[in-house]
Amino acid sequence: MFEPDFLRRALIAAPAIFFSLTVHEFFHAYVAYKFGDSTAKDMGRLTLNPLAHLDLFGTLMMFMSGFRFGWAKPVPVNPYNLRNPRVADFWISAAGPLSNLGLAFVFGMLFRLAYAGVVALPQPVVQFFLVGVLINVSLAFFNLIPLFPLDGSHILKSILPPEYEPKLVHLDRYGPFILIFLIVVGGFWLILGPFISFFVQLFAGVRIF
Fold it and tell me: What residue ranges do the domains of the chain occupy?
């Protein structure tokens, strides 16, 4: 688990992951609040303070996996408070992945400027920008997988006709097991690798796979 370059990767990857997860959860909370649900705000989750969003086991898993996998605490949403719940659920769920794609774009622009020498920065900072692109693109597409409890499962329920929702809710019980299986066997990278590679190259201008 602790390879020789573990500390170097920790100093670069951990801040990028913490920041990206925090922004992801903040935008879930922000959009929920805009649609009428103040649950997350009342619980102190409408904030960019990472301590409000970090999950103990998700953080431990992040370090144990060598910064390849981890998670934050899900933002609580009360659907009974929402105006137009189906539309609200779509945008609340999509807000997280969209915020990560936005961050990936910003990190990519910073990386391009630094890599081209337009802005003179230490090499670890340049690496931080590139890692930020990779992490945010990966978070965005990972969360778009239509399996419970990921954002993609909520998005799918929101765009399909209401009569399909009971069947999808029934399938939710299997979602975490399928998700764990995909992670263990590397199916995540097989399925999403080409998309991640394309968007990293689009934002940062370099190929990483």
Answer: 6-204
Q: How confident is the model at residue 2 (pLDDT cuts 50, 70, 90)?
A: low
Q: Whose CA is closest to 28, among 48, 14, 13, 51?
A: 48
CB 188 within 8 A of CB 150: no
Beta-carbon count within 10 A of 194 CB: 11
3, 25, 163, 165: the catalytic one is 25
Burial class (CB within 10 angstroms; exposed 0-12, middle 13-18, buried 19+) of 132 = buried
Kind and range of the H or E run holding 3 = none
Active site residue 25: yes
The whole-number pLDDT of residue 1 equals 52
Count other C-beta atoms under 10 Å from residue 111's C-beta. Answer: 25
pTM: predicted TM-score of the whole model, two decimal places: 0.92
Cα–Cα distance, 206 to 30 (Å, whole number):
33
